[in-house]
């Protein structure tokens, strides 16, 4: 993957997959590899109904993040 997708559903799926498959050990490492800021990704996905779960190391739909 050369870049992170712009579509929120594809972006959340891609980020979660890269973290799950241990391509990257943290959201920060993933974001820096793609020249992005973690807070920008978090804010963008939050605006589209997803929240970062530090405990689970993945983005979850708002309301299912517990």
Keywords:
66 residues; alpha+beta; 45% helix
3D architecture notes:
It is built from 3 helices and 2 strands; from the N terminus they run H-H-H-E-E. The protein has helices at residues 8-20, 27-33, 38-47, and strands spanning 50-53, 58-61. The chain has one domain. The protein is α+β, with helices and mostly antiparallel strands and 66 residues long. It is globular and about 30 Å long.
Task: Give the secondary structure arrangement, pairings included.
Elements: H1 8-20, H2 27-33, H3 38-47, E1 50-53, E2 58-61
Antiparallel strand pairs: 1-2
Domain module tally? 1
What is the H/E string?
A: HHHEE
Strands, total number: 2
Give the N-terminus to C-terminus distance in angstroms. Answer: 30 Å
Structure in a nutshell:
The chain has 66 residues and is of the alpha+beta class. Helix content is 45%, strand content 12%.
């Amino acid at each position: 993957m050369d870049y992170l997708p712009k579509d929120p559903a594809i972006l959340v799926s891609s980020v979660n997959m890269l973290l799950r498959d241990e391509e990257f050990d943290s959201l920060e490492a993933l974001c820096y590899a793609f020249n992005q800021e973690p807070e920008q990704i978090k804010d963008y996905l939050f605006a589209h109904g997803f929240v970062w779960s530090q405990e689970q190391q993945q983005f979850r739909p708002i309301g299912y993040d517990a």
